[in-house]
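[Solved] Which block belongs to which protein?

Original post:
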Amino acid sequence: MAMLINDNDTLKKYVPNTLKAVAGELSLFEKIQYHLLQAEQWLTDTFVSSDTMSRIRTYSDNTPLLHYCRIVTAAEAMRHAVPQLDLILTPNGFGIVSNQNVIPASKERIERLLLSLEKQRDDTLQIILTMLPDAHHWTASTQYEYFAATLFTNLDTIHQLGFTDHIWQHYQEVHAQLLTIEQRLEADYFSKPLMDTLRTANILSSWDSLAFPDKYRCLYQRIFAIEFSILRTDEYPIPSIIDTVNFIRTQPSNIFQEWKSSDTATLFESHGYKNKKECGGYFF
């Protein structure tokens, strides 16, 4: 089976400071091949999709997307393999591989290494996510649908929320929150058709394809800020939300037509009582 990383020479480009195996000893590639397979499958299932990954495997070595996918695969594979690499099974149980020249790393150093590998993986995933919209068949995948489901397609947003470690883990938690938040915002204020337009334009960076790109960008920034505030405070900033609705309502009739023709727009139509001269009384 063709893999992103097929041999030890390729692997060593992404795992520096490795010693050359002596005659009769397994290479690092042979030792962690299972983990490489698992890591590549995880990257495929979670981010890239099978169709897109099949195309990426055919790219030349100097193609950026292939390069970054290899970084993620190597980092994720090593993250799972490291705890096992210095252990051997003896008749009396597990022991630590050691000799007079190499001292086993401390628990603290191993933990720092694992955290560093996770950070390298997550930082590289952020780069990959910016490249995938232009990749073969990615926008037709369920992986695309996952990231296009909210306005927050950028893992870097997690840093802005104050997290410094475990970025992908935190993104998944925030993504689940955002689904609920955006469902309420679109039902009560902004409409699903308009939110869908913003989400698509954001993930594909296709603002210029819209008739009024500056208006839509401005609206996206407003709603993004509202959602960011909700994530930070767990409260809906109603004044900002109403101000944003009024921004939509007061635009010319040919701008934000998705909202103006939606059921949500009817929630903001005036249904109040109006005094008429022919009426016998007045209501205040």
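(Second protein starts here: sequence line, then its structure tokens.)
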Amino acid sequence: MASTVALILAGFVNVLAEVKQPGRLIFGYFLGWSNWDTAIIKYGIILLPIFLVVAWWLSFQCIPRARLGAEIEKLSGIWRKLADIFSLWSRHYSVFESKWLKPVLVTTVFLGLFAPLHSAVFLMNEHGVPVWNSPAAAILFFASAIAVAALAELVVIPALAWAVTATRPAAQTGHRITAAVALGVCLVTWYGWMWWLGRFGSIEELRAANLFMGPYGAEITWNWTVIGLLIPLVLLLLPTGRGYGAQWLAFLGATWGSYAARIGIVIGGEAINRSGAGYYTFHLNFGELWYTGVSVLLFLGILAALLAAMPRDAQSAPFSTAKKV
């Protein structure tokens, strides 16, 4: 949950930095709702902050009440009241012991599925960019997110657990299989999509296919296909995939490939609307890479701060250490 909080906050900062008009997000709450049913961005403005609040709340709910209460009781005066507010008074109750547990889990799963699909559905509803108006982008965004999440469960979450509790949970084979299947879906979807565009697409879609397989072909092949798909698949499917080091390499490759795929689809869609040969020379600029780098650093900083604030001797109590397949 702490990593989810950090990811959402870093993502919000990236959006605010790129649009350069933070007020647009605020106005989205109460203006322009006459066509609310056709604007996925408005659902994102509401649901993603709700996801942030739920993840923040569950970050404290996962701490045993007695341990959280002991930490807050050490504080005095205003600091104790602030700690209660920021933890949403989690030391006084437990959602895991209430009848609201299942609705909370269902809501969290729904919001977690909405987050990776939101931007893809937004692109699908953009007018005048045929290559975006395809369900293939949504499949790629969702499957790559599942792959990266499964690999994060394999390598990142155990590392964070060790940093907080000095213990590592048992390895879970299911996550490795999930990641491999999701990466395979990405591989089939991407090249199936390119094949379909090249043979049955409109003129604009043919231009996009020629762009992805031509001028952008080398970058996409190396950053997406090789680094993001083939190398992680080989590492996961071979017997070496059970090793922690190989899983880390697979995670880093899949994460980079997932980012490269999103950049390629967005830049490719923007490029084909340019006249003449201009779209062949349209590339990612430094400003967009800068925003991404700052967001990554912000994510690491927020995550480190959250982990530093958590008790270190009882965090693993609610979770089983038994090996799961």
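Accepted answer:
You had them paired correctly. Confirming on the second one: The two ends are 23 Å apart (CA to CA).
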